[in-house]
């Protein structure tokens, strides 16, 4: 049976965006590492997530779904792992929206449990925004489960403004709208 989660949606302009932080990370893209390392990374980074639209026990399916949603707009150079020395610290999947190339989103952002609580999330989020800006995106549309307070705080720290609340299918992350028959219909992807 499908589950519904509530997501807070945020926006910000990316015109001339540069990260304001001193970035401690070394990055490797999926183009450089291949996808196996991303599946392993997702397994680690999804642990303890407060977002109900990601299943920490199924990193393989989660990555496959995101690749499917990206379709032809997938740029493996924009999907990156962040390292501190040799240790995996985080992951950011920057994605131009297939239907609106001027707009970008982060399909996923996460910090490894060992590195959480140090505000690294906002540095990695800013890196994602910068990747999108360099790829030609003028606007950012993001979203997270309303229960994910650290992620909401990360959006706030990086100047994102609230742009609504969406009911989404927990499995696919797609936006739902209550139809006349009171069932939900998919109207928009918001991963
Ligand atoms: C979301 C995530 C990236 C944030 O990483 P982080 O930088 O380590 O987060 P922090 O613990 O430093 O918290 C960030 C901010 O939220 C605040 N915060 C943390 N927990 C909070 C809570 N329960 N309630 C309110 N605020 C909270 C912190 O005080 C901090 O604020 P500050 O920067 O003003 O000091 C990280 O928790 C994560 O990777 N989670 C698992 C994956 C995930 O859920 N990704 C998002 C999917 S959309």
Identify the notable features of this structure and list them briefly.
Aminopeptidase, alpha+beta, binds coenzyme A, 191 residues
Provide the gyration radius in Å: 16 Å
Strand order of the largest sheet: 2-3-4-5-6-1-7-8-9
**How many alpha or pi helices?**
5
The total strand number stands at: 9
CATH superfamily: Gcn5-related N-acetyltransferase (GNAT)
Bound molecules: coenzyme A
The tally of structural domains comes to: 1
List unreliable stretches of 5+ residues. Answer: 179-191
Look at the structure and give the mean pLDDT: 90
Q: Largest sheet at a glance? A: 9 strands, mixed
CATH C-level class is Alpha Beta
Remind me, CATH topology?
A: Aminopeptidase
Helix content: 25-40%
What would you say the CATH architecture is?
3-Layer(aba) Sandwich
- How far from one another are the termini? 20 Å
Give me the strand/helix succession: EEHHHEEEHEHEEE
Going by helix content, strand content and strand pairing, the class is: alpha+beta
Shape: globular
Can you give a write-up of this model?
- The chain is an alpha+beta fold and 191 residues long.
- It has a single domain, classed as Aminopeptidase (3-Layer(aba) Sandwich).
- Helices cover 26% and strands 37% of the residues.
- It has helices at residues 30-33, 36-45, 59-70, 120-134, 149-157, and strands at residues 4-13, 26-29, 79-84, 87-97, 100-111, 139-145, 161-169, 174-178, 184-189.
- The chain has a nine-stranded mixed beta sheet, sandwiched between helices.
- A hairpin with a 2-residue loop joins β3 and β4.
- The longest helix has 15 residues, at 120-134.
- It is globular, with a radius of gyration of 16 Å.
- It starts with a strand and ends with a strand.
- The structure holds coenzyme A (COA).
- Coenzyme A (COA) binds at residues 45, 49-51, 109-111, 116-121, 144, 148-151, 153-154, 157.
